[in-house]
Amino acid sequence: MTTSIETSFPHVPTATPVLEMRGIGKRFNGVPALQNVNLTIYPGEVHALMGENGAGKSTLMKILAGAYIADEGEIFINGNPVKITDPATARKAGINLIYQELNVAPNLTVAENIFMGSELQRGQLLDRKGMELEAQKVLQSLGASFTPQTVVGSLVVAEQQQVEIARALKDNSRVLVMDEPTAALSDRETELLFEVIRKLKNDGIAIIYISHRMEEIYALADRISVLRDGQYIGSLTRDEISAQRLVQMMVGRSMQDFYEHQRQTNPGPVVLDVRNMSDGRKVEPTSFQLRAGEIVGLAGLVGAGRTEVSRLIFGADRKTSGEVFLNGTKLNINSPSDAITAGIGYVPEDRKDQGLFLEMSSRKNIAINTLKQDAKAGIINWGSVNKLATQAVENFNIRLANLEIRAVNLSGGNQQKLLLARWLAINPRVLMLDEPTRGVDIGAKSEIYRIISELAAQGVAVLMVSSELPEVVGLSDRVLVMREGQLVGELDGSLGKEITQENIMHYATGASEVSAS
């Protein structure tokens, strides 16, 4: 499924790969993490390495970077075999890995960071002038806007990444591995990084790019290689890349099976009735209803007011008008605790800042909403807590070594499932999900979709805010669309308005044409 180097990368003068990993195997305590994995990288290409969490991507890259030693297999640089036994030999071979957590000293200058561990000397003294001159050459090649004398702590994250890249280029890097490089970047910073990657590519440096964000893969990748369960599944060239093929390769089933919303929908009575909800600023008076057992998508462009409506219902923000009825009874919600008591749950879009207690154990994160009701005479019932957490880990397939693992140490998908488990512990009548699969891999997405569908099948009314239109279309029984703080349209196939991406965008952008089913 690969194409020749001359066809794919016409600017590269040779078809010799800069890197080949052949038959790589690795075991931990006798358990295979990688089995007979192959990877071929050419000069001047951006090669995306994809696979769900646990597929073996990080293990393979740590072998390449010298953090692990492979049990089987060979590594070749420019056709020549090399033995990579530690990070120093990897760097000497021209391989550098930039981790998601940046490794910079914020109190030192850019030049000092670039030459950290390999400082230039003049006699017994540091050659600061020489380091600054060499650093300036590398920074200029990257198009950096800061100087070698700049203190790194004053730079934004994308610029700190440039410092790490400059350090790699100073070491004459041939292969640069970037692991989830945009995880902490804004949109503008992401574009800045993309500009740097394109410069590196034009200079003939190979980039191995690890990301779960499909839009980044489409924007950057010349080729993609996929791992699943520690095995190499195959590679795709740029013109072969499609969501359908990637899903099939990564999770082992087709796109049609990806959204597990195959049930016959038969919504029950109205559970949540929202009337004239407004904050007087970003949300104009908004009314809608949710029925038992249905999934309602809340769609719209960024800034349309979707998140704000959810937070108003939940009592996280103060409303200027509006009423909320649950099963016909008017609620007095002035805070999230009022909503929780009534049986309304809310999974926020930013799980790290607004959802999880990152430094607390997984067990406490799951049980925190029910600690009070399970307490006896004000004392936490740890037996009940352990039972709840153990059952949640099993039901949600949360991958962790034990219940004391802190939330901060879990993958994005497992963090999100941890948060879902917490809210389901209150047995909600209504569950609001804001970007429920943001920042998780495809395997975790599939599991979260299953959980959402099962909740609806059990009679929970689900309101799902999502910017991913395929997700909205694939899961929703109905779709409400917001634009500029107003609820402007509703799509429901049973009412003659088909739920499609095109129809959602017609409402979201102000176009009037909506296709009938």
UniProtKB/TrEMBL annotation:
**Keywords, A to Z?**
ATP-binding, Cell membrane, Membrane, Nucleotide-binding, Repeat, Sugar transport, Translocase, Transport
Q: Name the CDD domains on file.
A: ABC_Carb_Monos_I, ABC_Carb_Monos_II
Describe the location of the ABC transporter domain by residue ranges.
19-254, 253-509
Q: Which PROSITE patterns match?
A: ABC_TRANSPORTER_1 (PS00211), ABC_TRANSPORTER_2 (PS50893)
Chain ranges passing through the membrane: none
Predominant location: membrane
- How is this protein situated with respect to the membrane? Peripheral membrane protein
Compartment(s) of residence = Cell membrane
This protein's GO CC annotations? plasma membrane
User: Pfam families from the xrefs?
Assistant: ABC_tran
* Gene Ontology molecular function, alphabetical: ATP binding; ATP hydrolysis activity
SUPFAM superfamilies attached to this UniProt entry: P-loop containing nucleoside triphosphate hydrolases (SSF52540)
Annotated protein name in UniProt: D-xylose ABC transporter ATP-binding protein
